Amino acid sequence: MTSREAEERSAAALVAAGRRSADRVLRGGRVLNVHTGHISRADVAICGTRIAAVGEVSRTIGADTEIISWLAKRAELAVL
User: Which of 33, 40, 44, 70 lies most in the core, judged by the most C-beta atoms within 10 Å?
Assistant: First the structure.
């Protein structure tokens, strides 16, 4: 793992813990669990290029977080 990858993982972990704001939050999307095939509605917090949290992500929203409504865009995301 490169030092940049380590920094990205560390930053995403801080977002997941609510100790840092997400770069963007995607609200109300359809998330696919690729292990079970189950599709559910969920919010997703993004930090850089990484998914930091799925589900209840209000703890990740800060003043500079971009909030995107998936309901308006009808996007889907596969969570591995």
Answer: 44
